[in-house]
TrEMBL record:
UniProt gene name: smg
Top-rank lineage group of the source organism: Bacteria
Protein name per UniProt: Protein Smg homolog
Family designation: Belongs to the Smg family.
Database matches in InterPro entries: Smg
Length: 153
């Protein structure tokens, strides 16, 4: 499913400019993706566009509290992934609210294994969905220049 999301992200960085769901499904099918995975990915992609701060306390954006993970979150995010999120937050790439959105999208991802590379992609998708005109050079560099990037479809 993440391959489909990366494909969508690269081809439609502005969610609101993406074609209608049925047209998008046809394009993804033509690109060789599986029908069930397409439906899951389109749901995930659509939900990405609905993230908003109203669902979280207003104080979260500027919080300096340490994030403890619930058991269900620990099941999906190993210590390396949790460390990556902490690094992105301490480096000023993610604020606490954006970190929560990344965790939300990780939990919604239909993948057996969540790796740090997948977290980087999700973080980039969350950031671009909020501000597509912003450069996220450090995160992009982490994704594309470490030699271990996920293959792109």
């Amino acid at each position: 499913m993440l391959e489909i999301l990366i494909y969508l992200f690269e081809n439609y960085p502005h969610i609101e400019l993406a074609p209608h769901r049925d047209a998008l499904a046809l394009k993804l099918t033509a690109a060789g993706f599986n029908g069930d995975e397409i439906d899951c990915a389109l749901d995930w992609f659509s939900d990405l566009g609905t993230l908003n701060s109203a669902e979280y306390p207003a104080s979260l954006m500027h919080s300096r509290a340490i994030r403890f993970y619930a058991e269900v979150e620990q099941d999906r995010l190993d210590s390396e992934s949790q460390g990556l999120l902490m690094f992105l937050e301490q480096a000023g790439i993610l604020n606490p609210l954006q970190r929560e959105w990344v965790i939300d999208r990780v939990l919604a991802l239909d993948e057996d294994e969540i790796t740090p590379d997948k977290i980087k992609w999700i973080a980039l998708m969350v950031l671009w969905s909020q501000n597509p005109n912003q450069d996220y050079l450090l995160l992009e560099d982490m994704l594309f220049n470490d030699g271990n990037s996920l293959p792109i479809h």
